[in-house]
Amino acid sequence: MGENGAGKSTLMKILTGIYSRDGGTIHYLGKEVEYKNPAQSEAAGIAIVHQELNMMNDLTVAQNLFIGHESMKGFIINDRAMIEKANGLFRLLNIEIDPLRKSGI
């Protein structure tokens, strides 16, 4: 919460290792942390959902949901697993979305 230009996005990018901090400290779970990249912050349980609203319209809802974190079966994307995960998330959130629906429709 804050005005445009207050630094919300910058803070989140520092917290998730996209940007390096130039001062101050960040404490998470009682320890000082500094993540060098998003993979490190994700391994610690911190991820960011960027404010980009443009989805890939030719992909399904499930495929869009797991961009960058696709379920794999060997070297092939496992769409069935992503659909099951998406349905589980939607049940948890008590929302009805068809994970097979194309995002651009």
Structure at a glance:
With 105 residues, the protein is of the alpha+beta class. Helix content is 32%, strand content 10%.
Describe this protein's structure:
With 105 residues, the chain is α+β, with helices and mostly antiparallel strands. It has 2 domains: 8-43, no CATH class; 52-105, no CATH class. The protein is built from 4 helices and 4 strands; from the N terminus they run αββααββα. The chain has helices spanning 8-15, 38-43, 61-65, 79-93, and strands at 26-28, 31-33, 72-73, 76-77. The chain has a two-stranded antiparallel sheet. A two-stranded antiparallel sheet has the order 3-4. The longest helix has 15 residues, at 79-93. It is globular and about 45 Å long. The two termini are 32 Å apart.
Pattern of helices and strands: HEEHHEEH
- Read across the widest sheet, the strand sequence of neighbours is 1-2
Radius of gyration: 17 Å
**In percent terms, what proportion of residues is strand?**
5-15%
User: Counting H and I runs of at least 4 residues, what is the number of helices?
Assistant: 4
Share in helix:
25-40%
Structural class: alpha+beta
Overall geometry comes to globular
The total number of structural domains is 2
The parts where pLDDT drops under 50 for at least 5 residues are none
Q: Look at the structure and give the mean pLDDT.
A: 90
Number of DSSP E strands: 4
User: What distance separates the N and C termini?
Assistant: 32 Å
Q: Mind summarizing the main beta sheet?
A: 2 strands, antiparallel
